[in-house]
């Protein structure tokens, strides 16, 4: 049969179903994999997303017409059976399974393999064709276990607090901030959140995700702030808001922190390699678990992954999309000058 999903100027289009997946221009019907700004945009007629992501989507887009589908539940549209399955990326993230005429396609959106406490874990879905992201689709990207990163972060915070210095860790406000919070040790000191982070904390808590108690900066005096850790979006760096913390140590939490150039460019004291996307082994294991013989690679390291998958005997190709960095993560991805660093690390 002809391709079930194609790229149109509006986004990824399910031809027999007559709907789009994470479209980047306004359409009548949109299935949304998750609520990050590059995948969930305002202006669509009707939205369909995972039930656990409805409140997140509304908190970000306002008053929209949205239906929630429980993971594994099915609905039929124009003869296409649609179901949503956990992607393990952020709260409410989902893969879209589409079945028509005995053919099964799965669009992954963004995903990670390692479970965390803030969202449902990734669930492999068997299919004929798998549309995968490739944000970190180079062999250089291999993550350490989550707990080792949190242990390192808590040691850094404890040392700063012992020296009377505030700790500030930057991470995008939806998803990364809540994952950071889930790994912090509240016995070390107060946990403060930026005003862009706290509303999403409430959505997570209302969704049943346990997070440690958090405060706003106005809740503490200067003396108490010296032992606190502050979780803020990257946009807060260098802003007047930061002046209230006096002598502070700062850090950035992102998969891009594996690159020296990205750490230098952010100008932070520490880089914690913590990503909500799959690393190279995670991408390969996810693809293998689908059993798909055809793989379509989107946003990220498309040529490298396509070439590698073809060498493994799979039918692989790429889709050009308008997906990018996750909200406040803009500007962290490798710049052209860092291509040599990536290649050298890849060849090592």
What tags apply to this protein structure?
348 residues, alpha/beta, Metallo-beta-lactamase, Chain A, Rossmann fold, 2 domains, 7-stranded mixed β-sheet, 6-stranded mixed β-sheet, 24% helix, globular, disordered C terminus
Question: Strands, helices and their partners?
Answer:
Elements: E1 5-8, E2 11-14, E3 19-21, E4 29-31, E5 46-50, H1 54-61, E6 66-69, E7 74-77, E8 80-86, E9 94-100, E10 103-107, E11 129-134, H2 146-162, E12 166-170, H3 176-183, E13 191-193, H4 198-206, H5 222-225, E14 229-232, E15 248-253, H6 260-266, E16 270-272, H7 280-290, E17 294-300, H8 302-311, E18 315-318, H9 339-347
Parallel strand pairs: 3-4, 4-5, 5-6, 10-11, 11-17, 12-14, 12-15, 13-14, 15-16, 17-18
Antiparallel strand pairs: 1-2, 2-3, 7-8, 8-9, 9-10
Structure in a nutshell:
The protein has 348 residues and is of the alpha/beta class.
Class from secondary-structure proportions: alpha/beta
Helix content: 10-25%
**Quick check: average pLDDT?**
92
In what range is the share of β-strand residues?
A: 15-25%
Q: What spatial order of strands do you see in the largest sheet?
A: 7-8-9-10-11-17-18
- Class of the largest domain in CATH? Alpha Beta
Question: Largest sheet at a glance?
Answer: 7 strands, mixed
Element string (H = helix, E = strand) = EEEEEHEEEEEEHEHEHHEEHEHEHEH
What is the gyration radius calculated from CA atoms? 20 Å
- CATH homologous superfamily classification of the largest domain: Ribonuclease Z/Hydroxyacylglutathione hydrolase-like
Count of helix runs: 9
Model regions low in confidence, pLDDT < 50 over at least 5 residues: 327-331, 335-348
Q: Could you say what the CATH architecture of the largest domain is?
A: 4-Layer Sandwich
Total strand segments: 18
